[in-house]
Amino acid sequence: MSDTRPTIGALQADARRRFAEAGLDDPAADAKVLVAGIFGLSFTETVTRRHEAADAALAAQLENAVTLRLARRPVHRILGEREFYGLPLALSPATLEPRADTEILVDSMLPHLRRLAEKHRTIDILDMGTGTGAICLALLQECPAAKGVGSDISEEALSTATANAVRNGLADRFETAEGSWFASISGCFHAIVSNPPYINTEVIATLAPEVRDFDPVVALDGGWDGLDAYRAIAVDAARFLHDDGVLGLEIGFDQRVSVTALFEAAGFRLIEAARDYGHNDRALIFAKIG
Q1: What confidence tens digit (pLDDT) does each residue in 140-156 have?
Q2: What is the CATH number of domain 92-288?
Q3: Are strands 241-250 and 281-288 parallel, antiparallel or unpaired?
Q4: Class of the 8-79 domain?
Q5: Cβ 252 vs Cβ 275: under 8 Å
Q6: DSSP H helical segments within 22-179, as ranges?
Q7: Closest by alpha carbon to 80, among 132, 42, 32?
Q8: Structure confidence by residue, pLDDT tens digits, 157-187
């Protein structure tokens, strides 16, 4: 008797077709990520095993996932996790979904951390608004001499970050602090990093549903001009940063001049600016003046 179950490739092609008909931005990528995640395949295996008959239970899971994606739930929210800088990270409703552009901040910070680690042997990192822990955990993974503190106003986000640290074998060098910006922070750090909320309040309603309806608003809304979080960080950052330390921030595409001005007024100088894959300004690295 022939196997009448659909193949993995046929299911992926059907998902891609339905996503395209719904007008989703990248139907092929969405279909591939969902098939890979649900069937436990690498992207290469979605090709090499495309002629295999699909397990019925997994096919049903995929159908449910396709339905959720057609309702504009992001693919990684459906799967419950996303990879960031090679680390698998669980997501929760209280955490921003880490995105590839934020890896630019990690790339930009690492040479400075390695220089500081060579000088001091061990270094301390503060990641404000840590969410999933993505930035801090990536830096800890790449810099074994570092220890990190992830702070956030959300207890749920901190629980997610802690679980991600455990999952990636970094729990012994990662701890959390609950509070707004520096409110619950003590001591001094060799590096402070943050991907703060930086979208203008009035713009939130115009965002794609995948962002507007699923990322926590508190992690997106930067106030009327998008700069509220930067102002809060700039006020106190110098007190918590060693004299030879560095401060790294993710920014919106049009915020380089305004954010730089805020931190220059607070006693910092811009030492590096990096652009993302779309050639937009994305990360700024500051040092203390003098």
Answers
A1: 999 999 999 999 999 99
A2: 3.40.50.150
A3: antiparallel
A4: mainly alpha
A5: no
A6: 27-39, 43-48, 56-70, 75-79, 103-120, 134-142, 155-167
A7: 132
A8: 999 999 999 999 999 999 999 999 999 999 9
